[in-house]
Amino acid sequence: MKLHRNLVFATIDSLHLIFNENKQADKVLKSTLKLDKRWGARDRGFIAETTYDIVRWKRLYAEIAEVKEPFDRPKLFRLFTVWATLKGINIPDWKQFEDTPTRRIKGRFDELSKIRKFRESLPDWLDELGAKELGKKWDAEIAALNQLADVVLRVNTLKTTVEQVQHELADLDIETETIKGSPSALKLKERANVFVTDAFKNGFFEVQDASSQRVAEVLDAQPGERIIDACAGAGGKSLHIATMMENKGQLIAMDIYEKKLIELKRRARRNDIFNIETRVIDSTKVIKKLINKADRVLIDAPCSGLGVLKRNPDAKWKMQPGFLDSIRTTQKEILDSYSRMVRPGGKLVYATCSILPSENELQIKDFLGREAGKDFSLVMEEKILPSKSGFDGFYISLLEKKEEDLLERGLKGNKTEGKQDAVKIGLKGDKTEEKQDVVKIGLKGDKTEGKQDVVKIGLKGDKTEEKQDPVKMAPKVSKTKAKKDTTITGPKGDKTKVKADATKIVPKVSKTKAKEGTTKIVPKVSKTKAKEGTAKIKPKVKKTKGK
Q1: Is the separation of the CB atoms in 410 and 424 below 8 Å?
Q2: How high is the pLDDT of residue 417?
Q3: Of 353, 356, 364, 474, catalytic
Q4: Annotation marks residue 353 as catalytic
Q5: Residue 29: which CATH number?
Q6: Which pLDDT score is estimated for 411?
Q7: How far is the C-alpha of 310 from the C-alpha of 36, rounded, in Å?
Q8: pLDDT tens across 378-437, in order?
Q9: Closest residue by Cα to residue 146 from 306, 305, 310
Q10: Same domain, 104 and 244
Q11: Do residues 226 and 350 share a domain?
Q12: C-alpha span between 467 and 225 (Å, rounded)
């Protein structure tokens, strides 16, 4: 390969922005590749791949070149020299490459390759963390994550088919192949700029890794449902979910960054998707308004991003040890808050693009053990490892929220239960048999002591008799002590004779004015002869139609 001065210089300029000015690699390259319209696909490919390669192997190359940060231009050229030498590229006779120690570079490479943190080009703390969390698996996973990522497409089945996109790209000499287990995916056999194709501009596909596509498949959104993508970002997964919903139902895409949601809207228009509603999470009210409202909620949680180092190699240099502690706390808070939007019986998917257990299965285990997760149960989980799949590393778990107990709701059944002192009445007025301590007929009751036989009354006036516990909830009464035989007159003129020293219980009936179309329930007290120290009350319900 012959090196061209303008391409090499463009690469050095990009590295300077990434390493010294802490710019994101993808954004730097997007800007760099627009600098010269004369550059063809091969020229652009050289700049992008060389830049990513040197970013990926920064620590190894810096050790071999014996340079340390910050990298000035001479140091950046030395890094480039190491890259070119290890790639077997002839070094041109430029002043920037004077006295290149080719043999020494190869010797140092062999020596340092025996040490994992140099071989895989990692910060010490990250290498130690990976080994601690993954054990022996860390070697295979980090090696896989240092490989160049495949370009994978997700076909928009609302507008076309996998076969049609495959044929259309083939006409442009872009060869693709299907991926087993990913029904909407196509993988490019060779890298190509698919963004300039008519198929992309017409919304026939999006670029999305196969592992990422699996998230929407696990969520399994159905047409007509209300779905919430709680950490939508620019909407890659939202678009996939909307496609599976066939544009039917409501998909609420939420994020704390409005700019990302604006990009989502633009992408949705290109994909002919119109059932997405975006909402910026700018206060807790946004979440509170949706509590128990969603059939399914996706939490694509912010994470370390270690599972996508293939396509974001600069992340391992920008990340700091304290960031992981912070992000794990954020994940916990998001789980506790956003999970409340799932309705009883609904589903929750928690996903990350990380391979660390502390961000994944351990987060879910802790969530299920907390008060916030007590109503959820784990249905399934998937750990997608780069070493086995060949794609990005992902974690996906599916949880289900238990149905609200009908006995607690009292809406779909006639029985209700609870430790309240009341007769529970179903919507149809059917009687319920429970050990309750009250006749509840719309009046306020005070507690009275003593075992009494009370009557439970349904809305239809049906009566059941059962013995009650010592603490009773009865219609509000006042108690007085009779000094001699006394006759009590009730609200309807009914008379009850009470012997001396017995307790007189006089129901207090509040006056209520019935509105038109309502029914007034008035207790009627029949005569009963009270034994000394007790009083038996048999309330009767009389329905009267309000005028």
Answers
A1: yes
A2: 42
A3: 353
A4: yes
A5: 1.10.940
A6: 53
A7: 27
A8: 999 999 999 999 999 999 999 999 998 654 555 555 444 444 433 343 434 444 444 444
A9: 310
A10: no
A11: yes
A12: 48
